[in-house]
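Sample entry (299 residues):
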Amino acid sequence: MARIDFPGLSAFVAVATHRSFRRAAAELGVSPSAVSHLLRDLEERLGVRLLNRTTRSVAPSDAGARLLQRLQPMFRDLGDALEEVNQFRDRPAGTLRINAPHQGARQVLAPIMARFVRTYPQMRLEIVNDDDLVDIVAGGFDAGLRFGESLEQDMIAVRFGPRQRWAVIAAPGYFDGRERPRTPHELKGHACIRYRFHSGAFLRWEFEKDGEALEVEVDGPLTLGDQELMLRAALDGAGIACVFEAVAAPALTDGRLVRLLEDWCPDFPGFFLYYPSRRQLPLGLRAFIDMAREEWPES
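Predicted structure, serialized as tokens:
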């Protein structure tokens, strides 16, 4: 029976999952050269190339893809087994990795992250920002943060943080010589500041009033991928933007921006923290959820 090379297999799973030696090394807590050495030894021992490497990318070979498919469930089971032992500890220890969109991280995770690492000094918290919906299992994350309607059914979701609301905004000067839209349909013909996800899809503006729900695909000369930049563009008079209410609140309060279609923008549950239903809830994640409930008792 061949000797099982756990360090090499662990390095392979990390690199094949992240498609990056650097990110794999960060997850494993070693140097990229150490990861490369482990992979080279594993490939030499097996006599098979597991990864196709170029100067800019790394991806599993056919043999590597098949090996990864078999190893990922095994490593998840191993992690669950270790987590069962961790349940006997008085306080959580280990690493908690959460994938979250930028605004979700700023509004929901930021208020508790410092208190979490102070309260649990044996925990390491890593928050990775990504506005696109990602596969948290394949990405090696313990949990993700997204809106509830975008979650898969095999995930357990916990409402996380305050309720949210969209705000349609513009600088007062933008309406010099223009009529303010009174319904979402009247956005047509206005210079709207669009948001594009990394996937290439545009964010549709969502409205609801008196039981009528609308999704509007707006148009305009400026497309951005960050709400802070959209706010800046609206302040500079570039057009009408749709951002989270919390992002626009200071500029609305002091009059630098005006709010439009407010009666079409009801609040909604906001963000959910989610994790795979087939996994035992890690002790560190449970502590993080409990701390969020202290911060937002209504969640």
